[in-house]
Design brief:
Helices cover about 50% and strands about 15% of the residues. It is α+β, with helices and mostly antiparallel strands and about 200 residues long. The protein has a 3-stranded antiparallel β-sheet. A hairpin with a 2-residue loop joins strand 2 and strand 3. Helix 5 packs across helix 7. The longest helix has 17 residues. It is globular. The termini are far apart.
Length: about 200
C-alpha cells in the first residue's frame, strides 16, 4: 500500500470510529507495521495543523483519534449548543493527581494519601471518563483498582503518561502529604487552563 493510500485509510478508519482506535489494530487491518502507522499518522497530524484544518489527529498512548481543533472549540459549542465543561474542583484534582501519578490505585490508597473519604469524587471522575476500573487487587475484599483513560490524556494535552511533568523534590513534610501536593502541583502545571473542572463539594 502506497503512503498516500495508507494515510487515507487511517483517516477514514479514525473518522468512522469517532473514538480512539488502537494502533496495532489499524496496523493489522492495513497489513502494515505499527511504526509505519505511527509515521503516517504523524504526517497526517502535521498536515492538518499546517493547513489550519478544523480537525486534528492526536495520539493517546497506543491509540489514535481524530478530534476537533481546540482553537475552534467556541464555534463548535455554539453550533452544537453544548456548554463548556466546568473545571475540576480541588477535590477532583487531588484524586486525579493521585491516580495519574501512582496508578493503578485503589480507592483506599487514594483516601490514605488525601486523608478524607473520596468515594464521591472517584465516582464523578469515573462518570466523566477521566479514570476507569482496571481490575481488582489481589487482597481481602478484592478492591477495585483505577487508572487514567485516553480521555484524561486528551483533556490534558498528553500523548502518553510519560509526558506528565516530573514530581518536585521531596521536602520535610509527611510522605503522604508530599505525594499528594507534589502530584497536584505537577498535574496543575501540565493542565494550566485546559483541564475540565468539577463543581462538586470538596471531599
Amino acid at each position: 500500500m502506497e503512503l498516500r493510500e495508507l494515510k487515507g485509510a487511517i483517516e477514514g478508519i479514525l473518522f468512522a470510529a469517532g473514538e480512539p482506535v488502537r494502533i496495532d489494530r489499524i496496523a493489522a487491518v492495513l497489513a502494515a507495521e505499527p511504526d509505519l502507522i505511527c509515521d503516517a499518522a504523524a504526517s497526517i497530524a502535521d498536515e492538518l495543523s499546517y493547513n489550519g484544518s478544523g480537525i486534528r489527529l492526536i495520539r493517546l498512548d497506543n491509540m489514535l483519534q481524530l478530534c476537533s481543533a481546540p482553537e475552534y472549540a467556541d464555534y463548535i459549542r455554539a453550533a452544537l449548543e453544548t456548554r463548556k465543561p466546568p473545571k475540576l474542583s480541588q477535590a477532583a484534582l487531588e484524586v486525579l493527581s493521585v491516580v495519574a501519578y501512582f496508578q493503578p490505585v485503589t480507592r483506599a490508597y487514594i483516601e490514605s494519601v488525601r486523608g478524607v473519604d473520596s468515594s464521591y469524587t472517584v465516582s464523578v471522575l469515573e462518570e466523566r471518563g477521566l479514570i476507569e476500573p482496571c481490575g481488582h487487587l489481589d487482597a481481602p475484599g478484592r478492591p477495585t483498582i483505577f487508572r487514567t483513560t485516553p480521555t484524561f490524556l486528551r483533556t490534558f494535552g498528553l500523548s502518553s503518561l510519560q509526558e506528565l511533568p516530573e514530581l518536585p523534590e521531596e521536602g520535610e513534610e509527611s510522605e503522604d502529604q508530599i505525594k499528594l501536593q507534589s502530584s497536584i502541583d505537577a498535574l496543575s502545571k501540565a493542565a494550566e487552563d485546559t483541564q475540565p473542572e468539577e463543581t462538586e463539594e470538596t471531599q
